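Q: What structure does this chain adopt?
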Amino acid sequence: MAKKKKRIPKEDRLIELEVQKAAQAYLEHYYKTQERPKVLYSNLEERTKHKYGMKRADGLLAYPMSKTKAYVVSMEAKSHKTLKALKPYRIDKLWVKDSLWHGLLFTILSGVMFFVWRMTDESFWIRFVIPMVVLLGASALYAYIFRNSHKYQEMKVIHQVFQYPANEQWLSLSNDSFEMIDPKLQDNLIKICKARGVGVLMVDPKKNVAMVHGPKKRPKRWFSDYLHFYHAEEEIRKQLGLKIKQKK
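A:
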């Protein structure tokens, strides 16, 4: 029998601010323990610069990586009130395109085209129709088998996370919001985040935080760092004791 979505009592539901604060405190401890920076900047509600859309990261951390550059970590928090952004949805265009491509590969590798075109007694239309039927049949079978694959799914929250450039990016969820998602899609949510390099934290009703998996480290920027995207860049650099380049 298929699992049913759990009904979460109101008293066990966390608001976004609670998820945000618990996750930020966890990340502070995590980076202090793992990286042991001499100084760590940590703040909630950090905005990007106007030219980058003034997007609001729910949490931002930074610590010195060199005399001039910082290592930057951003975090997006979600609760049951923003549930729509957490629900995976299928990208039909990519799903259909990939199905047709795999159908074509099967048709070629199976030798159907070569075999049919050697049938000299058959008309051109017969030699054309048979490979086409095999192609469409193989494509339809692939599409059916992988119709719910995370490979062809996306979430609005992923786009939100990527609005906050950083070396590492996290998504923090309340347990109740996760449990309110269709059980068939819960596993895909985690897989999508992992495939996109986004770390996932889960916050329970008692505000205990558990790491589901860590984030992928983004490439370092050659001429600057990810603080360049944030409105409070100069203030953060000063707090971290980084050298600030003089504006020409």
